[in-house]
Specification:
Blueprint lengths: L1 H70 L3 H5 L8 H7 L9 E4 L10 E4 L2 E12 L2 E12 L1 H4 L9 H5 L2 E4 L1
Antiparallel strand pairs: 1-3, 2-3, 3-4, 4-5
Helix pairs in contact: 1-3
Length: 175
């Protein structure tokens, strides 16, 4: 009989060890899952916040287009505001003249990149701008292809009233 008691007690110690191992490993898995879930939430939150940068770019262009249209009298005068990255219309957007945020910056892509050009076509001007969103240790860079339509070609050569919907139709971001 004493032999059976020894076998049972060794078996019990072995089972308790296995159960403790399972509990400890599952606790560490749950802890790491919680950390992963929190980091994914933070990334998702930062992605959402960085999407505000695109909306800020749109707002600045809407006001820039409206401003350029109000100052111009002809198709050529309007186009002069979007001829290069140093012209008034684009410079006002890059300098965030109309709407700005400390966490967001608008810039021209690096000179070494293939995105630094302005293409003029009939009725519109196309170019790339870089958006940078930074908050704490989070930095998001994105390059967006922008297109500004000439209102004199889109709506006719006569000066018309540009309402909100018409102004919005004069700028698009093509991704």
């Amino acid at each position: 009989m004493s032999r059976k008691k020894g076998n049972i007690s060794i078996f019990m110690i072995f089972m308790v060890g296995i159960i403790c191992g399972i509990v400890i490993s599952s606790m560490s898995m749950i802890k790491s899952f919680g950390r992963m879930k929190e980091s994914n939430y933070i990334r998702l939150e930062n992605d959402y916040k960085s999407s505000i940068a695109k909306e800020m770019l749109k707002l600045n262009f809407y006001y820039s287009i409206e401003d350029s249209f109000n100052r111009s009298k002809t198709k050529g005068e309007f186009e002069a505001n979007y001829v290069n990255f140093y012209s008034e219309g684009i410079k006002a957007v890059i300098n965030e003249k109309y709407y700005s945020d400390k966490k967001i910056s608008i810039s021209v892509p690096d000179s070494s990149s293939s995105y630094k050009f302005i293409r003029k076509a009939k009725g519109y001007t196309e170019f790339y701008l870089q958006l940078t969103y930074s908050e704490g240790y989070t930095v998001r860079h994105s390059i967006h292809k922008c297109r500004v339509y000439n209102p004199y070609e889109k709506y006719g050569p006569d000066k018309i009233y540009l309402d909100e919907n018409r102004i919005k139709s004069l700028f698009t971001i093509i991704n």
